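Priority: medium. Attachment 1 of 2:
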């Protein structure tokens, strides 16, 4: 009877440790995603200033600016899921890249001090977003491993924990921007 109680106690301690480990990993993912959200909010706040600064110069690229503005509006909506935020971030990153490329074609705009400041700010924010994405992806990978690996998968199933999505680069983003095509729209 005493051996049975010892084994039961050991199993209970192991279960508690696995449960606490999963809760810690889940909270780490939530915490890091909140950090990603904060940096994305900084980017969303910068976008209206960038668009306002470049739109009078970039009449031919009006579609790019409208796309960025529309994506920003979508991203600012409340109650978006993490997956929706990740998808919108991917689209917005591509659209902002198109603006950066378009600015290169306007020497007056490129030399404008306000635009240069906005571009530097955007570049800094993009670096912060990149670092936050890496941290988030690592935390999600740790959580997903724990959810799928034995024996923590048993506790994760009982806790109803689901795999989380990571920030991924789409196939289109992996290709170089075709500047010629961009300006002939």
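Attachment 2 of 2:
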């Amino acid at each position: 009877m005493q051996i049975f109680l010892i084994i039961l106690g050991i199993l209970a301690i192991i279960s508690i440790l696995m449960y606490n480990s999963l809760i810690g990993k889940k909270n780490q993912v939530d915490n890091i995603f909140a950090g990603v959200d904060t940096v994305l909010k900084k980017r969303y706040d910068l976008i209206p200033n960038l668009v306002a600064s470049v739109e009078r110069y970039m009449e031919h690229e009006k579609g790019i600016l409208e796309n960025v503005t529309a994506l920003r509006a979508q991203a600012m909506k409340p109650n978006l899921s993490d997956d929706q935020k990740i998808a919108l971030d991917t689209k917005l990153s591509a659209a902002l890249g198109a603006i950066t490329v378009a600015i290169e074609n306007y020497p007056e705009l490129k030399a404008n001090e306000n635009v240069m400041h906005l571009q530097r700010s955007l570049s800094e924010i993009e670096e912060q977003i990149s670092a936050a994405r890496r941290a988030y992806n690592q935390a999600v990978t740790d959580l997903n491993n724990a959810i799928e690996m034995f024996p923590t998968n048993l506790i994760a199933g009982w806790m109803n924990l689901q795999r989380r999505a990571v920030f991924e680069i789409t196939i289109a983003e992996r290709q170089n921007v075709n500047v010629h095509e961009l300006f002939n729209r």
